[in-house]
Write a structure and sequence with these properties.
heterodimer, A: alpha+beta, TATA-Binding Protein, 8-stranded antiparallel β-sheet, 5-stranded antiparallel β-sheet, B: mainly alpha, Four Helix Bundle (Hemerythrin (Met), subunit A), 2 domains, flat
């Protein structure tokens, strides 16, 4: 037996420690105070920025304390855990005693306690107890779900009560807090949060996780069929819209246009419109351009000419420098093992009648200047560069990528259940109370003496008004008869 | 008449009501007090009309949305809620001195909205993220909560004046409701505000989850609303479970309202990383 005592003692004192509401107050205030820190110091920025702002010493101190990601730091999570245990232990501890009060078949009433209530209302009435009972019964039955009548030799006592279960309100609130924290935990263990940019017409099967360099594979492909952005007259953005398609094993399984506040949800993964951007035009050109604007520089005169041509169209060069025909567009032009990107190739017929091949990479306008060095047949009388291309004769369609936020949070329904319970629980706890009322009527000669008293576990002033009201209604009913 | 003008007039109507309440209290005259009730009622009606008119105007501009989308509109709604809750409290308590402490808050909120050069009263179109019914629920519930806390703030100040014993017979303080009444009223307002703050945080979280895929992200505004929640939760537990009462509860109520104000205005002045350099050097 000795050993048992020894082993339960520390457990007991731990339990005792967590039943303390003083601990709750301390934890709540500590959480409030420490939370301030994370709002003063921006979270999750790069070490370089912090070092610049705080200097080396302070930086290292903050880093050790995880101040730069403090809401996920062990000590902050520990505070949350302590609060959870505190809430749980307090609730279980008190529910033990509340349970017997809340779940009873026959509520017990103690007439003497009502008689000693200092807010009781006393009145004399000319009617007999029997007559008063006929008024009191419907009056109480309208407002109180449970009623009990006890008759004695010189009158009766009527007990009534309602909303006994509202004593559970505070436990509902506490359950909701535990659910929210558990839901958050489930989300952080089994969920993920990341971003991905998808150019129009392309698809991805993985995303980049938030605050890390890691990529995370998705169980399906997301394809961006189209992205559009519209603006108000003021220039403020009005709507971002992505037409997305979910592809599983080559099959389209879902298609949806998403806008901000209306995400796509598929197999527990949520896809949100988050940002967008324009794709760079020239280097990413995918189809042969229609109109090509060239810059021609004559060595002799030093003049620069701008000409617009199309592929296959012959161009007579100025100053009788020759003729140029562009023949082909290539996405990748490889030069000495290096990819120089999109380029146009063609034939330059020089002033002397000799024809040479010519290549004009879109991203390197001075490339042609170097060609005499590699090609002895090439004269240096003229240099040509591309300074603009148009995909079609119509104004170019901008190409966008859509920025999506992709999350999975299996805990969210637990958290939402917590939300609902929190609202219900707060309402019940604050604005509903277990109300008990007692009407005692005793004959006094051929008159009666009425006593009305009531108790409530909350909002005692409100209960007082109700007691007053019932007493007044009872007394006033004498006049109506 | 446009809504901005109507709401500017409302500012002065609330100002007049506040003035009359203070007069009534200081000079112990019933007349100005009774008038003040009517004046603040007129203010509330003008405030309501202003909000409705602004709503209509936004539709006429082709960018129709509920007038709850920026600082100006939220301040206007804040003032409206304070005035409404005050009138209910006045009816229930039957003491107009509360008006001397809380009607000025409605006037201040309106004055800040109408007169501050930093606050634009232009009706602006909604950014994509703000197009959500959750936003409307979020703003309404938050500001009902804030208004209740504002009332609790005014009542706590009254309490701190009132509880200084012994009150001079026939003095200013004696005309305030009894300390016990004020304490109970403070508690009621805090409970009411706490419920609505909770609903406000929750609807905000649901909105964030539908717009950005996360219900909680520890951004400064979210965090400060939680700090406010912690402070009032402390107050409720200290009072109900630890038996705190009197001055300590009143001070907690003041601290809570300071957190409310910081959540509302102060968060905008917190350093982003861009203003870091100035902070470090």
């Amino acid at each position: 037996m000795e050993t048992k005592e020894v082993s339960t003692d520390p457990l007991n004192s731990i339990w005792k420690f967590f039943t303390s509401v003083k601990l709750t107050v301390v934890l709540l205030l500590t959480l409030a105070a420490t939370s301030v820190v994370g709002t003063l110091i921006p979270q999750n920025k790069s070490p370089m920025e912090y070092r610049q702002a705080f200097g080396d010493v302070l930086y290292r101190l903050f880093d050790v304390l995880d101040v730069f990601d403090m809401y996920h730091a062990w000590w902050f999570q520990l505070l949350l855990l302590l609060l959870t245990v505190n809430v749980l232990v307090c609730s279980v501890d008190r529910l033990n005693s509340s349970w017997k009060i809340i779940f009873v078949k026959n509520p017990r009433f103690n007439l003497d306690r009502f008689k000693n209530n200092k807010n009781r209302v006393l009145a004399n009435d000319s009617r007999s107890p029997e007559q008063i009972r006929k008024v009191a019964e419907p009056l109480l039955s309208r407002k109180y779900s449970y009623r009990r009548l006890e008759e004695d030799s010189d009158g009766f006592v009527m007990f009534a009560e309602k909303w006994r279960w509202t004593r559970l309100g505070v436990y509902i609130v506490h359950t909701s807090i535990v659910l929210m924290l558990v839901g958050g935990l489930i989300g952080s263990i089994f969920g993920f949060e990341g971003y991905v940019n998808i150019p129009e017409g392309e698809s991805v099967a993985s995303i980049r996780l938030l605050n890390s360099e890691q990529t995370h594979p998705l169980p399906f492909e997301i394809r961006n069929d189209d992205f559009s952005v519209s603006f108000y007259d003021t220039g403020m953005p009005k709507e971002f819209r992505s037409s997305l398609r979910i592809i599983e094993q080559g099959q389209t399984v879902m298609q949806k246009d998403i806008v901000v506040n209306d995400p796509l949800r598929y197999r527990g993964v949520n896809i949100f419109q988050s940002s967008y951007g324009e794709l760079p035009q020239q280097p990413g050109l995918t189809a042969a351009p229609q109109d090509i604007q060239l810059a021609l520089v004559s060595k002799e005169s030093g003049k620069e000419y701008k000409k617009t041509v199309r592929i296959g169209q012959e161009l007579e060069l100025p100053e009788n420098l020759g003729r140029l025909v562009l023949r082909e567009f290539t996405q990748t032009f490889s030069f000495r093992g290096r990819d120089l990107g999109a380029a146009l190739t063609g034939t330059l017929t020089q002033a002397d009648g000799s024809a040479v091949d010519i290549t004009l990479p879109l991203r390197f306008p001075s490339f042609d200047r170097m060609s005499p060095m590699f090609n002895p047949a090439r004269s240096d009388a003229v240099f040509i560069s591309v300074f603009d291309v148009r995909a079609s004769a119509a104004p170019a369609d901008k190409r966008y990528f859509t920025g999506l936020q992709v999350t999975k949070d299996p805990g969210v329904w637990v958290v939402y259940t917590g939300f609902i319970l929190m609202i219900l629980g707060c309402f019940v706890t604050f604005f509903m109370s277990h109300q008990r009322i007692c009407v005692h009527v005793a004959a006094a000669g051929n008159k009666s003496r009425i006593m009305v008293a009531g108790t409530a576990n909350k909002n005692k002033m409100g209960m007082q008004r109700k007691v007053q009201h019932i007493a007044e209604t009872l007394v006033d009913s004498a006049r109506q008869n | 008449m446009n809504s901005s003008l109507l709401l500017s007039i409302t500012t002065f109507v609330y100002g007049l009501a506040a003035f009359l309440y203070v007069m009534s209290w200081v000079f112990k005259k019933e007349g100005p007090g009774r008038l003040a009730t009517w004046v603040i009622l007129v203010g509330l009606i003008a405030n309501t009309a202003g909000i409705v008119l602004r709503w209509v105007e936004s539709y006429q501009m082709g960018i129709g949305h509920a007038p709850l989308s920026n600082l100006y509109e939220s301040l206007v709604f804040f003032a409206w809620t304070i005035a409404l809750i005050y009138l209910i409290v006045e009816r229930r308590v039957g003491n107009r001195t509360v008006g001397a402490f809380t009607a000025p808050l409605a006037c201040l909120a309106m004055a800040y909205a109408s007169l501050s050069p930093n606050i634009s009263d232009r009706i602006q179109p909604l950014l994509p993220a703000l197009k959500s019914n959750w936003l409307i629920a979020h703003v309404i519930t938050c500001f009902i909560g804030y208004a209740a806390f504002a009332m609790a703030f005014g009542i706590s100040i009254m309490y701190l004046f009132r509880q200084k014993e012994p009150a001079q017979v026939g003095g200013l303080m004696e005309r305030l409701p009894r300390a016990a009444v004020l304490e109970d009223l403070n508690h009621q307002m805090v409970m009411f505000g706490f419920l609505f703050l909770s609903v406000g945080i929750i609807t905000g979280a649901v909105w964030a989850n539908s717009a950005w895929g996360r219900y909680w992200g520890w951004d400064p505004k979210e965090t400060w609303s939680l700090i406010t929640w912690f402070i009032y939760a402390t107050l409720l537990h200290a009072k109900l479970m630890r038996g705190w009462h009197g001055k300590r509860i009143a001070y907690l109520s003041l601290a809570g309202f300071a957190a409310v104000l910081f959540t509302y205005f102060g968060v905008n002045y917190l350093p982003g990383l861009h203003s870091y350099g100035a902070m470090g050097q």
